[in-house]
Design brief:
single chain, 5-stranded mixed beta sheet, about 290 residues, Neuraminidase, mainly beta
């Protein structure tokens, strides 16, 4: 009996030690347990911290992970917010923006963006902050929920650019009707109720399981943009003004399937990509070297 137990332990250890296949991604770290439902990440201005949030059901809290220590060093609770369905996190200079706009059923009328200002002045540890708020509705949504065939008002992706918010929809059409279209809306970066104006569309691909946009990011110095799905990244560059799809487009197949919900630029040539936990393992953070593509 003892012999078989030893064999079982050796087999388990051997399996555990096998190198993981992450496709074109490089493993960076495993997310802390508090970020089991990670849905958004953003880099700090000094590049020392990775800010992260959880989606619906979590607390209204932003966590700050030290990129060298790979541990949470700070948590910022937004005192005037609740986490209805937090889906993405964006940064601009020293401000953070939380997108509470998850809308799987396409029937929300209370979608909100929270602003937390001067996060570099918040000390390590636990902290409470009061946020500015922007609420919005879509200019082209007339019914809540819309009829079948028009289920494209869920948002899980946004960034800040030239004093505007840019939101990208996660297409919720059925497998038979899914066309891979993500719509792009523009909202002025102002407090209060705003109208989300449709400015463009982009066709990702036709596989509903792998072509829904789950996160977006912009590198503010170069203007380079990334759109993420579970197994792909699109990079947009050399565009004019906010016509993001008018320039060069690079499609990158990651070769690794998981519930990837978050992307941000580590630098001009590198992405951080993170995933939610699965039933078996906690989610990871990966890097993607864009110079290889």
């Amino acid at each position: 009996m003892k012999f078989f137990s030893i064999i079982a332990i050796l087999l388990f250890t051997t399996i555990q030690c096998q190198p993981q296949d992450y496709g074109v991604l490089e493993y960076y770290m495993t997310l802390p347990d508090l970020l089991e439902e990670n849905s958004g990440i953003a880099i700090s201005q000094n590049k020392k911290y990775l800010y992260a949030i959880n989606d619906s059901g979590g607390t209204a809290t932003i966590f700050s992970i030290h990129l060298d220590h790979k541990e949470i060093e700070q948590d910022i609770s937004i005192s005037n917010a609740q986490n209805v369905d937090w889906e993405d996190l964006a940064s601009f200079e020293n401000d953070l923006f939380v997108g509470d706009f998850g809308n799987n059923d396409n029937k929300r009328k209370d979608q909100t963006i929270y602003w937390v200002e001067n996060v570099d002045q918040i000390t390590p540890g636990s902290f409470s902050a009061f946020a500015k708020t922007t609420t919005f509705t879509f200019e082209d949504q007339k019914e809540y929920p819309p009829k079948k065939g028009n289920q494209n008002f869920d948002v899980e992706s946004f960034f800040v650019h030239n004093t505007n918010f840019y939101l990208f929809t996660r297409n919720r059409e059925s497998h038979k009707k899914f066309d891979g279209i993500t719509k792009v809306y523009k909202i002025p970066m102002k407090e209060g109720a705003q109208k989300a104006i449709l400015i463009d569309e982009f066709e990702t691909c036709s596989d509903r399981d792998d072509c829904q946009v789950t996160s977006a990011a912009i590198h503010h110095e170069t203007g380079k943009i990334a759109l993420l799905t579970y197994n792909k990244v699109w990079i947009f560059d050399n565009y004019y003004d906010d016509q993001f799809f008018s320039g060069s487009v690079t499609k990158i197949k990651l070769g690794h399937n998981s519930q990837k919900e978050s992307v941000t630029f580590k630098d001009a040539h590198t992405l951080f990509i993170s995933e939610e936990a699965s039933s078996k393992t906690q989610g990871n953070v990966y890097t993607l070297d864009l110079k290889k593509f």
